[in-house]
Every structure is written in structure tokens, then in C-alpha cells.
Here is the input.
Amino acid sequence: MFRFALRMVGSVEEAEDVVQEVWIKLWKQRDYLDKIQNVEAWCMQLTRNISIDHLRSKHRRTEGLDEGVRQIQSNDHTPDVTLTKKDLFQKIQQMMNDLPEQQRDVMHLRDIEGYAYQEIADMLDLTLNQVKINLFRARTTIRKQIEQLQAYDNAK
Here is the structure.
């Protein structure tokens, strides 16, 4: 589990945190372990999910600081424009949350975290082609939803 978590999160400290969270969840679910057909696979899936959660929370922490600096540096935005961009960003985040899990994870790791296709394939235990297909489908879905949103806003 540790090597898998390390490969996903990239630092020893974070991988240790991930594995610790897995053990805590495993302990909390100890009464139900006999109902799980493959405990090892369940633990690896749990490790994957917690690792992705760590990557997301790490990104949110740094993203908030970066956004604040960009807003302070940018003096050509009116409050209306800033509010509109923030609203659009929140809508896109919601659209991403509504994607199927695999598409959401691939899109997050590629477009937000900036990982390479092969790194994503290794992290999520997918083929390179599966990563590309999931990313294409996720982007297509988001693009269509944005177009619908813009058409709705233009009709107002």
C-alpha cells in the first residue's frame, strides 16, 4: 500500500498519511471485513481514493493562495467580471463533480494537477489509451455543458 500511495502522492510524508488513513478506515470497518470478498483489492482501492483526496486537498490549499495573489495583482477586473468568473469556475467544479469517478479523476489529475498521461495511467492503474479516452469524454461533457450554459445565458 505504501509504495502505491507514494507513487500517487509523490512524497514519503503524504504517503505515510495516506496509509495511516487506510489503516484507520480498515480498523473502523473491521466488523465488516468478512463480507468483503477481496480485502487486499479493497485496501488498494481505498489507498487510491484517499491518495486522490490528498492530491485534491493539497491543490485546494495552494490554489486559494494563488487565486488571492492573482486577484490582487490584477487591477483591470471590475467586481462584476470577477464575480462572473468566480461563478463560472464554481459551475465548472460542479460539472466535474458530476462526472463519472474515473473521468473526474483523470481530468483532475491532468487539467488541474498537471500530471502527464503516463503518470496518470500509473497512478490509476489504467492504460495510456484509457486515460486519453476518459479525458476526452470528460472534456467533451464539460464543453457541452458550458455551451448549454452560455446558450441559456445568451437567451436571457
